[in-house]
Amino acid sequence: MARRETPRTAAQPAEDTSPAETLARIRGALPSLAPAERRVADIVLADPAQAAELSISALGKQADTSVATVMRFCRAVGIPNYPQLRLALAAAAAREHALGGRRPVPGTDISATDTLGDIVRKIIYNEVRALEDTGAGLDTEALGRAVTAVAGARRIDIFGVGASAFVGQDLHQKLHRIGHMAFVWTDRHAALTATALLGPGDVALAISHSGETEDTVEPLRAAAERGATTIALTNVPRSTLAQNAELVLTTCARETPFRSGATVSRIAQLALIDCLFVGVAQRSFDTTTAALEKTYGAVQRRRRPQAQRRTPADE
Questions:
Q1: Tens digits of per-residue pLDDT, 238-250?
Q2: Is 30 strand, coil or helix?
Q3: Do residues 78 and 11 touch, judged by C-beta distance below 8 A?
Q4: Cβ(233)–Cβ(260) under 8 Å?
Q5: Element at 232 (helix H, strand E)
Q6: 3-state DSSP assignment of residue 156
Q7: β-strands 156-159, 203-208: how paired?
Q8: I want to staple 281 with a disulfide (CB 3.0 to 4.6 A). Which of 86, 122, 236, 288 is the partner?
């Protein structure tokens, strides 16, 4: 079986972390934090500039917790000590100010009293932030290795259920168009059956926002046991799915109680899928271009000629 590499997680320090990546990593760690640590994270994310000015005891008091918990929070998000956290938050706040000072939309979850305009602003804000944070926190080394694995794979099996299934289907369609043998499985039994045919030289890619969906975790684990290269696409770098993958691609999208985050997570996943696909396509540029032209031509004849299309003036 292929040796599983230890993915970079939120708990692993990275002294070269960019300001944007600091906030992205904190958001990505939210689901795995203890309740008291989560309160610290909420204060930090709500206003990084203000949090950067607080002493460790003042931050602990605002979060209704102890200094020891604040220190545990620092370690959980990969920052060795509180002074470094304050520096990282100050840098992140300065970056946001330099980019125009865009502030979070008040109450970014959808409420019963929101107007349609409010809903549009909140959803667009959440989606743009998810894309920015995902790009800032993306491990490009892991992405590059995933591109290499997929580009050279005998076959690629993709696992996902629910909203993640649609993302898997998008990747399957893209890879199939450029001549790669790809399959997508949205049923647990079918996925487990497919893994029985995998081996070294194959790739299994599982998609789950939470990283805890057993219908996705189990097939990926089975693929790893067969020796396939395993890739996890998840929002939680310390999730069960990530722990069973050789390579981990992490999104940074925060779910909300109203489930508007279910849309946000899908947007972030689709962005990573596009990065992976374009990286694979670029590896065989001429062959890919020819394949795309052929597949485009196959459906072009199904489109009505411009001259025959009806216009409002024809009505």
A1: 899 999 999 999 9
A2: helix
A3: yes
A4: no
A5: strand 229-234
A6: strand
A7: parallel
A8: 288
